[in-house]
Each structure stands twice: as C-alpha cells, then as structure tokens.
Amino acid sequence: MQFQRIKTDAQSLQTPSKGGATNAWEGTIALFGDIHFLLILLDKIDSLLKLMIQYLPGKQSLKDVKARHQVSLKNYNDFRNHLEHIDDRIKKGVRDLGNLGDSTYTFDGERFDLGPATEKEVEDIFSEILKTL
After folding, report:
1. Which of 87-112 are b and which e, b meaning 16 or more Cβ less than 10 Å from the residue's Cβ?
2. Which of 2, 51, 60, 75 would you label with 19, given CA atoms 20 to 30 Å apart?
3. Residue-wise pLDDT tens digits, 36-50
4. CA–CA separation, 52 vs 59, rounded Å?
5. Which residues contact 63 (CB under 8 A, 6 or more apart)?
6. Amino acid 77: pLDDT
C-alpha cells in the first residue's frame, strides 16, 4: 500500500494544480513523508525477522530468509538513517540530500529503488517467511 501512495504522490506532482506552489510544496512534503514511512516499514522487516528467529521454531529457515535478503535489508536501514540523520549528513558535507527520478531515490550518490523491483522483493520476503511457519 505504501508503494502505491508514493506512486500517487509522485503523479500528483506531475499534474498541474490550481493551488500552485503551495500545493506543490505540500505534495513534495507528502511524497518525502511517504518515502520515509516506507523506509521505516522496510527497515522493520529486519527487526521482525530477528524476533521471529529468536522466538519461533524453524529458526534455520528464517535465518536463511534473512541471509538471502540481508543486502537489501541493510540498504533499507541505510536509507532510513540518511533521512533520520540528515543534520549529521549536512555537517559531514553531503550536498545530495535526496533526489527523485522515475522510481529511484538518491542520497549522497547512493541509489534506492522505490519501484516494482523493491515492491516484489518485499512481497517475496513475506512469502518466504510464511512458508517457514
């Protein structure tokens, strides 16, 4: 659902509105807010897996799921941290504080896909988790 909100936010910014700059600014805030919320949700997948590994049977299967997606899970966390610690990034001299292009979000030269590939991977992670239960 959050992926769809981001798509809708981005599309609304491409459609001229009667409100002008104020609506564009509000739309931009909504878009970045929805991106941040998505990154929080994606980052929590890792926390969910850690808890499940700790408390549920079938730990090895869950560990395997976590291992298969560890690079992406770290990427979700890294991008969430960029947004939540933007003041620290500015102090370090980062100039690229977040740009959007198509379904890609960049921060300090790093790229994060907000599109169908990431959405599919998230669906795959949850599908793999359900198969372990």
Report:
1. eebeeeeeeeebebeebebbbeeeeb
2. 2
3. 899 999 999 999 999
4. 8
5. 53
6. 92
Q: By the 8 A CB rule, do 62 and 53 touch? A: yes
pLDDT value of position 117? 92
Question: Under a CB-based contact definition with an 8 Å cutoff, are residues 114 and 38 in contact?
Answer: yes
Closest CA to 127 of 69, 77, 51: 69
Is residue 69's pLDDT more than 90? yes
Question: DSSP of the chain, one letter per residue?
Answer: -HHHHHHHHHHHHHS--TTTHHHHHHHHHHHHHHHHHHHHHHHHHHHHHHHHHHHSS-HHHHHHHHHHTHHHHHHHHHHHHHHHTHHHHHHTT-----EEETTEEEETTEEEE-SHHHHHHHHHHHHHHHHH-
Rounded Cα distance, 70 and 64, in Å: 10
pLDDT, mean of residues 95-113: 85
- 32 touches 5 (CB < 8 A): no
